Amino acid sequence: MPAVQETVERVRRIDVDQYRYGFETVIESDKAPKGLSEDTVRFISAKKDEPAWMLEWRLEAFRRWLTMTEPTWARVNYPKIDYQDLYYYAAPKPKKTLSSIDEIDPVILKTYEKLGIPLREVAILEGVEPPAGGEQTPSRKIAVDAVFDSVSVATTFKAELKKAGVIFMPISEAIREHPELVQKYLGTVVPTSDNYFATLNSAVFSDGSFVYVPPGVRCPMELSTYFRINERNTGQFERTLIIADKGSYVSYLEGCTAPQRDENQLHAAVVELVALDDAEIKYSTVQNWYPGNSEGKGGIYNFVTKRGDCRGRNSKISWTQVETGSAITWKYPSCILRGDNSSGEFYSIAISNGFQQVDSGTKMIHLGKNTSSRIISKGIAAGKSQNTYRGLVSAHRKATGARNYTACDSLLIGDKCGAHTVPYVEAKNSSATFEHEATTSKISEDVLFYCIQRGLSQEEAVGLVVNGFVKDVLQQLPMEFAVEAQKLISISLEGSVG
Amino acid sequence: MSLLEVKDLQVRVEEREILHGLSLTVNPGQVHAIMGPNGSGKSTLSHVIAGKPGYEVTGGQILFKGEDLLEMEPNERAARGVFLAFQYPVEIPGVTTWNFLHAALNAQRKARGEEEISSPAFLKKVREVAKSLNIPQDMLKRGVNVGFSGGEKKRNEILQMALFEPAVCILDEMDSGLDIDALRIAADGVNALRSPERAMVVITHYQRLLNYIVPDVVHVMSKGRVVKSGGKELALELEESGYAQFEDAA
Fold first, then answer.
1. Which of A167, A352, B92, B108 sits most deeply, having the most CB atoms within 10 A of its CB?
2. Which domains does chain B have, with CATH numbers?
């Protein structure tokens, strides 16, 4: 049997159930009544002890949402979602009010341990000073905010960040503690009326992370949020807001997993980034939501709106994403290049296997003068999956000297999958320079045989070729994440090859 | 015991028989040349020995050190010492040559139950081998065969041969696409790897290559069979009179 044929056979037999994070945590939870109404919105707002302006903001979004229809332009197919058949809020029932990480329910701590997320920092726990002489190497430290269903359960390294003036906390806390910042920036990048899923999120978002980096501060460590959907029939609607004030820098990582379930689960997040003059934000995602089983049953519907606003001069926003999970991915992390000389980057690896459907890409909106953007997208399709890159690059008529470079490469494994590239390019002034390159290739039998003749197994051969294919993007990830992502890529493609 | 023994081999590709009972015995230290016109089955033979998918063996057998080679997976054959130098080596973008060679060597060592070789130790080894073959170091840092000239690709094959130290090397049309200088350099590399333990099977269309790699035995193939075998002078004879005389014999 020719090698590719064999690969295809294996793909047919694959069991996507090798998903390693598919376990469920049994824990009592506090849920909102099923369904969505103004009461649900009020319930969530009350649970979070929110000020009146926040509730008003949510209700306005909810009323707007009622008038909207679900978008259908993406190359994804799924049965109609019954929005009344979902829970919009679920929180693990706390045994008592938490004052330190040691009081977090051990069941939850164990869940994160199992996922490999260290909430219990070796030396520094929340609010606990490092022992004298116990200096840690700053580069290895990552502060983690852990979101379990609808609530943030722990944020590490809070005290140390505070010393640097960095605010890193659950957004529900920020709404109460830093209302002036939240009110000033929330919804200014992704307005409540932006799109169906973002509007829904605005009405019912329950938690997420909030970051503020003051002027001139280089955030002393990587910030990270880890999202976990646990409850059945529960949507996760997290909201993240990151503000890098003038001349500051922050690198933020996001990871996601969910239990294996037969029914689909909805995830509709909104992420807003604001970079002021000379500020830089680097946002990295390793998305590993449950992709569904080998028959295409179950898995997360991932409808996410992520957008960064390069509001100030010389500001920079860089998105890096490794997308391996979800049954459906609908996601376009974008940059609005408003400030003169600002720049945006989008580095993406999107892998689809089994019955996964990915429609992802980016938008680079050039508004300021001499703005530049760079898009490197690597799509890998295996099994019976469909993988679409959809991107928009546009230059406003005042955006003189706008530059963009786009490279979209697709790699096909087997002949039952599809890769599609849908680029939109609009230049409204004559000084814009836009370049677009796209390639589609297949791991050919000849390449596989060459590797195998040198002693590699078929699986090792595909791994090697794929890693070569995605290398440019992997290099953009922070070290720890790159290693993790590389492992994840090989797991995602396990079984798609011999 | 002979190193490689092909006995009455019959091979089909998509219902069409390409090899109709081919036999060949190669002993350690020997260099065999297989010559023949296009379509005589030379490349098919090399592919079947290496285990390339897409060929159906309908009869005969291949023994390697007395064991049934056809029962082994292609990567297992590589680990045991069967090396095929490709006529058209493939390009693998994004994978550096030295990374590729390291992964391949370790895969072979692992299959043989040997310890894997560490990165520093490997780097030292591969640099030495490259130096001995006059291969520039920067070739190791480039993507496998990406942007290589025809000559560089063939030298990369020889580098791998030197690194993996196989028992049998099959050189498939090594001279194709090479000018005379590149050919000489490649041939020098091959000659440096001749040893009393190692055998080589040189597949070629033209006698030219055999001026540089002098064979012990020459076989003429036609229509899927070996129709004549002899010493190195047979190659010269072919150069004079061409393959036509064997068409009827086949």
1. A352
2. 4-249 (3.40.50.300)
CA distance A196 to A305: 10
3-state DSSP call for residue A74?
coil
Q: What is the pLDDT of residue A11?
A: 39
Give dist(CA A149, CA A153) in Å, integer. 10
> CA-based Rg of chain A, rounded to a whole angstrom?
22
Q: Is A296 exposed, middle or buried (0-12, 13-18, 19+ CB in 10 A)?
A: middle
Secondary element (H or E) of residue A46: helix A38-47
Q: How far apart are CA A313 and CA A275, in angstroms?
A: 9
pLDDT of residue A263: 67
Query: Does A460 contact B103 at a Cβ distance shorter than 8 Å?
Result: yes
Q: How far is B138 from chain A (nearest CA, A)?
A: 18
Strand partners, A389: A360, A421
| CA neighbours closer than 13 Å in the CB half-sphere of residue A61 | 28
Give me the DSSP letters along A305-324.
EEEEEE-STT-EEEEEEEE-
d(CA A458, CA B50): 15
Residues of chain A contacting B53 with CB distance shorter than 8 Å: 1-3, 5-6, 445, 449
Contact B205, B34 (CB under 8 A): no
- Nearest CB neighbour to A468, from listed B83, B94, B164: B94
Cβ-based contacts of B92 with chain A (< 8 Å): 447, 450-451, 464-465, 468
Cα dihedral B144, B149, B154, B157 in deg (nearest 10)? -10
For residue A331, the model assigns a pLDDT of 92
Task: Choose among B7, B121, B131: nearest CA to B62.
Answer: B7
Tell me: pLDDT of A445 over 60. Answer: yes
Give mean pLDDT, residues B137-160.
Answer: 91
Cβ pair A456:B143 closer than 8 A: no
